[in-house]
Amino acid sequence: MSNPSPIRAASCLLSTVYDPRLVEQAAAACRRHIGGAPDLVFAFVSSDWRDSLPDFVEALRIHGHATRIAGCSATGLAGVGREIEQASGASLLFLQMKDVTVKRAIVDPASLASSRSEGVWHSDHDSPEPDVRGWIMLGDPLAIDMDLWLCRGNRISPGGPAFGALASGGPDSDGLFLFTEEGVTDAGLIAVSFGGGVRIEGVVSQGCRPIGEPFTITGVRNNDVLTIGQRPAFEVLEETFLSLPPEDRERAHGHVFAGLATNEYVEDFGASDFQVRPIVGGNLQHGALTLGARPRAGQTMQFQVRDRDAADTEMRVRCAEALKRLGKPSAGLLFTGSGRGFRLFGEPDHDTSILRETFGELPLSGMFSNGEVGPSAGRNFVHDHSASAVFFLPPGDAASPVATSETHSG
Question: Are residues 196 and 331 in the same domain?
């Protein structure tokens, strides 16, 4: 007979303008499902909930007994087998974890420029946690350079993989925000670490397939790739594009990206060996390509195409591999790019449906984001229009998690 799971979770997806009665019911239901007060609540809300946020967090505290909340705004929300895009609502995940150390850092944007920011990786305003299993990070894209933050974190080896997202919303800066149990915060980053009796694992699906051949970058200037294999970069891109079959060229138009190798010591490069970055411009006169990244001379680069078939296949493969490797998780979070969803797949609920088909009725919360955090080749990166799913698992064999609480309204 297996031991009870040390991780109890419940999730809820509300599709509605702010309704205090529904929020109170959802918070109480999640608390009842996990059998008591949560150690942590993740909460994602549409931007129009901002004015009601004080009442929202108060309801989570009173009716959900939530004392620690990590949340942000989102243009879309995710739950068990369902996605809400460009609509009002909230998505919640209540977590109660036995023998798990949960610590949270609320990072001021100015601290990133100082050496003190390195200590935040191991800080919750008390003693450091030496046994970090993983991180969940929620960032404000207008207040913090998440790439720089993760680069520093990779260098100082904080321990464990990092998952998360950059807040989305809008249409103006007031529609982008992070919040805690105290309400909206001016922080640039909320970073939550998990230690002790938990495994933090996940999958990252960038949704691309390589085209052409891998080449070596031979000339760069800042974000510009000047030459590839001693040839003008634009010329190599044009040649690669024209080598595609006519039907593939039509599908690839406007959807070609640059894949920068994360590990040069690979004999046969595959999709997972590249960090996919957008091509944001070009200079026809000089043949340069401008990337949404800083490439380096000597780095391997291969062009990539993002389409619905490539994204669907990769997501299914990554999830199947994770199930085989990890077993069924106790709970999960999904951070999916704002360019995915119906816009990419032409159908609703794509990524959440794959997660439900693979892992069953997993308590799940999530959001559509401005950038997704997840590991690749042993390093943590910010991805673009990807799907980054993080799972909470017990340290060994344990019973299945408690049933999820799913509420839909509107």
Answer: yes
| CB proximity list for 58: less than 8 A, separation 6 or greater | none
Would 346 be classed as within a structural domain? Answer: yes
Q: Which DSSP string do the residues of 33-59 spell out, in sequence order?
A: HHTS--SEEEEEE-GGGGGGHHHHHHH
> Same domain for 129 and 254?
no
Whether residue 74 is contained in a domain is answered as yes
Angle subtended at Cα 135 by Cα 317 and Cα 271, rounded to the nearest 5 degrees: 30
- Whether the pLDDT of residue 158 is over 90: the answer is no
Mean pLDDT is lowest, of 46-50, 86-90, 140-144, for 140-144
Assess whether 360 and 329 both reside in one domain: yes
Residues 193 and 157 both lie in one domain: yes
Integer Cα distance of 271 and 206 in angstroms: 8
Residue type, 230: Q
Do both 188 and 124 map to the same domain? Answer: yes
Contact criterion met (CB below 8 Å) for 197 and 6: yes
Tokens 């003693």 appear where?
127
- The whole-angstrom separation of Cα 338 and Cα 194 is 27
For residue 399, what is the DSSP state?
P
pTM above 0.85, yes or no: yes
Residue-level pLDDT at 157: 45
Domain range for 168: 7-205+311-393
Burial of 114 (0-12, 13-18, 19+ CB in 10 A): exposed
Amino acid identity at 395: P
The Cα-based distances of 70 to 18, 46, 136, 165 in angstroms read: 19, 15, 9, 12
Q: How many domains does the chain have?
A: 2
CA distance to 18, 42, 151, per residue, from 334 (Å)? 22, 11, 22
* Closest alpha carbon to 102 in 138, 131, 63: 131
Same domain, 94 and 168: yes
Residue 403 forms part of a structural domain: no
Q: Is residue 52 part of a domain?
A: yes
Q: How many CB atoms lie within 10 A of CB 237?
A: 20
Pair (376, 294) in one structural domain: no
